[in-house]
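Sat 14:20. Reprocessing the chain from the morning session after the first attempt stalled halfway. Input below, unchanged.
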Amino acid sequence: MFKRTKVTDGTATGQGPDAENWDGKEVGFRKKSKVPGVMITQYIEKLPEGKSHPDFTRKPIALTIQEGKFAFFKAIVTGDPKPTVVWSRNNGDVSDPARYQSKYDPNSNEHTFEMPHVKPDQADTYKCFAKNEYGQAMVTVVLNVIEVGFKMTKAPQQQAEVANCNFKKVLKRRSKVVPKAEEPEKKEGEIDPKFWELLMSADKKDYERICAEFGVTDFRWMLKKLNEMKREREEEQAEFVKNLSDLKPIHINADGTASFELEFDLLDPSSSIYLYKDGEMIPYTKELGDKMKHCLRKVGRKYIFSMRDLMPEDAGFYQLDVEDVNMFSTDFKMVDFLVKIQEVKAMEREDAVFECVISAPLSKLMWFGKNMPLEQGDKYDIEVSEDKLIHRLVVKDCMVVDKGIYAACAGIKSCNAWLVVEADKGAPKGKKTARKTTRAGGSGTDLQKVAQEQQQILDKEREERKEKIKAAREAAAEAAAAEEPEKTADSGAGKDKGAAVKVERIDKTSVAATTTVAGDSGSGHSAGKASGGAKQDGSHADAGGGHSAGKASGGARKDGSIADAGGGHSAGKASGGAKQDGSHADAGGGHSAGKASGGAKQDGSPADAGGGHSAGKASGGAKQDGSHADAGGGHSAGKASGGAKQDGSHADAGGGHSAGKASGGAKQDGSHADAGGGHSAGKASGGAKQDGSHADAGGGHSAGKASGGAKQDGSHADAGGGHSAGKASGGAKQDGSHADAGGGHSAGKASGGAKQDGSHADAGGHSAGKASGGAKQDGSLADAGGEPGITSGLSDIHAIRGQPAELTVKMNTDCDGAWFKDGEPLKSGGGISITKDANIHKLTIHSCRDTDSGLLRFVSGDLSTEGRITVGDVPEFDEDDLHKFSKPVIVRVGQNAAFKMPFQPQESLTVSWFKDGTELKDGGGVKIVREPNHSRLLLRDCLRSDSGEIKIQLKNPFGAVEATSQLIVLDRPGPPEGPVETVETTSSVIEIKWNPPKDDGGSAVTNYIIERQERGHSLWTKLGDVSAEKTSFRDRNVTHGKKYSYRIYAENPQGLSDSLETADSIMAGIMILSGPPGKPKVVSTSKTCINLTWTPPEDDKGVPIIGYQVEKRKKDTNQWLALNAINEPIEDVNYAVKDVTEGAEYEFRVSAINESGAGDASPPSAMACAKNPNMRPCFKDPEDFLVVRAGNSVRVKISYEAEPPPHITWLKDDEPIAPWINVINTEGMSQLVIPSSKRSDSAIYTIKAKNSVGEAFFDVEVRVTDEPKCPGPVELEQTVYGKVAVSWVPSPDQELDDRLYYVVSQHDSNTRMWKTVADRLFANTYTAHNILPGIEYHFRVYAKNDMGLSDPSQSPTWGANSNRVPISSNGVSSMEISFERPPSILVPLKVHTPPKGYQLYMTCAVRGCPTPNVSWYLNNTCINSDKNYYITNSCGVCSMYILRVRENDGGEYRVVAVNSLGKAECSTKLTVRD
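Finished this time. Tokens:
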């Protein structure tokens, strides 16, 4: 890609003229330069004598160069006094001497601005200023840098914009779609930005498809938002383009490329166009034939983006931007074939069907038959199912010629199959059978089923997107309508209230502090739960024990405490209503599974509810604030759910008696209200509060589970114990601790909550329960009661054969256990050791064997844990193979490098290849082959940079092994390092020095080769070579005063490097200039040229003169202008100055040039005026005869030379011309024009030119004529034997045209050809000779003049039957004999196999009457007129001769003989041997 110059107006700070000297305050007059693009400002109105303002005679040329190369601009300026030259750039300064160097060569008067090793950020518009005291000249030039290693996310002008602190524009120069690597984590249900970009570039008919793809169902909302976005986008586009139309999405073409199109007009042609793929910029070229993958071509208003060499990774989201505004977006998808087309065998006249199923809907596939694209028509039917997943090609009415390979292409994916057409053997010969109504082929599978399964997958993905979007919208709507969360107190169960207890906090660095954490929990008598409410200070209020599966909840007071609640008698629930202060009112107990619903109070709290009797379902009533009142528990299989309050929370729900479920409702803050315990198999879960915590959950009576909710600080609320096999877990607080959990009555599990200091509170288990101590801040465990547990169990491991393996189980208490392998008990011995250290149990296998593999299990009481051990080996290489692989692979640049490594076949073996630590992937120039017992790596077309370490890694679950090798790519060395230094220069010796190349190409440099070029010559001469150790050279064959350039090559066994050349020529010795030549003399002048001559200088200072430089000065000016450059000397002592203006006066001077340069100038010549000398008229190359067809115009052009201009006169036959004849006179030419000529215009026209010096005449004959009329009747008369006199009546035009003559042609029955026997006959008779009896003759007579031939006059037949007297047969019949016959081949051609380069004769014999016309053919091409073949026909023997047989002479030769009765032919084959 190009690093384009940003062309801007104005000059930045520190640029342009020096701020101190050139402050830009001088005001002058604008002058026009002869050199386009130069701006001149003259400071004074009139210049002094001999002075001039600056001007450019050679301006710098715009340059496009590759990054890292040597860039320079050259300029030549003139002016008196001598101007000062300064360089600058628009976007930056040029003060860094390492990057910018200004030089001046006094010999050539060239100012050079050099940039060694040019960088992309140096691409800019540069200015060159030339200034003296009388004025200033300025010129601009553009530098473009081709960036090497283009970064896809970096815009071409980004660095320049950053330098100007325009960060906003830099950040803006990105695609609206963020690259995948930079995509932020999407929120649930968030719409992909690609959705809107695609809609803005799509047709309305595609809206439904795009919405279905992205899961958008609200079309009204979508259209409203889309219209708003379109208006904004159109306003942005209007700043850069107009007439945006014809947007065609990306599609795949028949040639295998993909493209999309759009039309628009750029308001500013210099606007930049960018291409993005998935949000990342991609480079492109302007021609698809170039090496780059992407191309953007412009055809009129149409912009066509093309992409070749398609790969799966080319799928993505493509965008085209103008500057930073998106113009078009399209999605390029790749599909795959789920079911490919299969081979079809069809009978003749039967239809053949190819069908396939693709992975994504596609409206059209590309079908090919025998490498030709197929379209819907009479021969082919192309069918697509409604879901666009099943595609069919029907080949109708199959014939034998239809057999071949047919293919279906979907992007870069394709599949192909054969069509085999069998001939219908039962069909009668020569007759076409009727078309069959059957179809052959098909995939052989249920395509509809495959397509339905794929459609279900696509629909499922679409529905998931819809649900995510719907959920996101609902969450957003609830958040918008939400109010401040309400705090809800936890509810307790039971009769009694306990007192708060204090526990000590243990810290690593401080003494334990006493804080009140939780209220005491009483034990439940029968599946009861007692939970302390949460007080304002964070503590829990006391909760009484439940009597019989009942739940009693105290209301939450303003200070956070819980009010007393009465006990429920049987499965009943009593819930206190919520008071205005946030607490719950007391609720009476339900008698039997009944439901009591409290009414809604004005303050939003629920009224007391009585218990329902049997199997009823009670739902809390809706309060004024939208919440539900409390609901009592259902007796049997009932479900009680808390109603939703206005703040989004649910009211308390009572526990179900049997298999019931009670769930706390969700409050505005996201928490759930308290849920009562289920009597049997019930589950009670605490709701989540706004702070993320769950409300308290009551314990389940049987197999129930109660879990404490998570509070804002991350903690869980208290959970009551389950009566039977229940589980209660304490919630986690902000400091990671769990709240207290009550004990379970039977087989229950109670876990102590973690306190603020990280410890767990005590948990009591009633029977066979498990109590686990909480983790303290110091990591220790608090005291736990109850059953033992496994804190660290077994897991699957892989052990190496012959190596030890150890399995460890940790218990929370010191208890015994047993080990089992595949169900069999294990004991110490036989390579196995079983040990126990307190609560840690270990099993150690000292040396693993294959028999040790199996399932290991540890059992301790009712607890167990298991894990599988698998014994195997780490992959390994054979020593010999490893030794072979470790040897370096050495290849040359452009060759392929191959690596192969054998290994033993293993399961679960992963093979990876690495180069310099980076894993290699298959693709591009890398080919990786994986076989069961070996792997191969092929690196194609290696470069020098591919050299490095190559590593193969074998990896399985037991470990990995690696083997390394080296790749050495040999290449030519890099060029020697410059610059070339001049060590010494004298009149006889020049010594230069350089540095070795940075890269030796992989093999050592053997020597350096030095070449020299003399200045003014184009030939480079080899001086010799030096060894690699020496980096200097002395050139002793130099001439004093001459300049030389040198270049040095480094050589290694792979070849020569690029050359290092001297930047400037090096002169041998010091500069010696020649003396002045003699004063120039003016030899002659004209209006276009002044000829000069001069004498050589008297003193050449001992240095040979190689030429001269001529300068001119116009009268009344002070500036001398060189007519030739110093490096283009005039070798002679005379010169024709052609750069003059007619009528202007000039003087000239000459300087002698030697090897050191131009010497002193000669004295100026005398003033010479550029005008022609007086001369008499003379005509230049006129034509004296002109023939014109009658009716056409006559134009006689005569060029002349005369000074002064002459007076022109035209005469016709020495008489003045008629007034209708036009005469047009211009400078140096006169033209006579007759618009519509007649025969009477034929005459001799005379032009007369006369001036003060003399006069001249010239005659031009003009003949106006037309094609002659044919002669009159032709008569034949025989005067003597063998001669016939032919006479004819003259043509009517004979009297009008004295140049008319006649042509006679003769035809006889023997040759049957017309031939001209007489030409240029001015008489009306002709005598034909050699007239033989028995042969018929015919004659034609033509009249001919300067315009051509007339139609012929035909003579009567003369010959055998013209004077024959019929003879009577007297009744005797005679048989008529005819010799006419069609052609036939008497001797056919023979087969020839000559060697290449040998001669060849090929003959055959043909007869026929009339004589047949014979033609020769090579591969059905006539060769009669081909000069490479010599063809003859002598009396029916036809021969063809080839002087030297070539390869392309081989093939089938055919001879065809044709006459009026028929045709005959024969053929043979010619094979050319090597």
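Helices lie at 158-163, 167-172, 193-201, 207-214, 219-237, 447-481, 879-886.
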